[in-house]
């Protein structure tokens, strides 16, 4: 995306800068002490996320002549959470709010979204996976694990899932408000697809039950098995994603991470 089309909606004294990220679709707009976060073709239910207080306030939405949609959100003063901060009870409370939000679920239904089942995820991921990576023993074992354990991942109490609860997607304001950003790939599914990676990656296992108690769940064998299944899936997904983005250090890290799961 070029910056000029965005400037059509802003006065000439606004300056626009790339905001980084894997997609290259996000920008900052600055004028004096004012600042906006701009994004092209953001999630169509951003307005509901904003109304629910899950993302920073939506300021305006504009459509370009080519059909692209630009959204502007309130710029917040804050920081991305550090990994150790993921144990904060505000993380558990916000994720619970998301997974129990009827407005979010209703919006995805209206957008034509259907629940995503484990067998669909495995099939789609394997079809898209880089053939050269499929020859790696750890990756072969991980796919085998997913296929052999499809039944343990069965669950039908659906929720809106973020799908990427990496600490870089959580932002805390200077006043202590917490947001979960980057909703481009949200879907309807088992909440364990968010809970599993968050607990495995950031919370010591001895503290899982305490964290889940804040969220509102008991750590039974069904939840434990489903979380593990989705951590395998998310790890393979990350390997493929970073391979496609030519992020060698990242996809090698996740290939190595499989050793801790197998």
UniProtKB/TrEMBL annotation:
Protein known as: Phosphotransferase family protein
Domain of life: Bacteria
PANTHER family tied to this protein: CELL CYCLE REGULATOR CCRZ (PTHR40086:SF1), PHOSPHOTRANSFERASE YTMP-RELATED (PTHR40086)
Gene3D superfamilies noted in UniProt: 3.90.1200.10
Residue span(s) of domain Aminoglycoside phosphotransferase: 45-229
InterPro entries on file: Aminoglycoside_PTrfase, CcrZ_PhaseVar_Mediator, Kinase-like_dom_sf
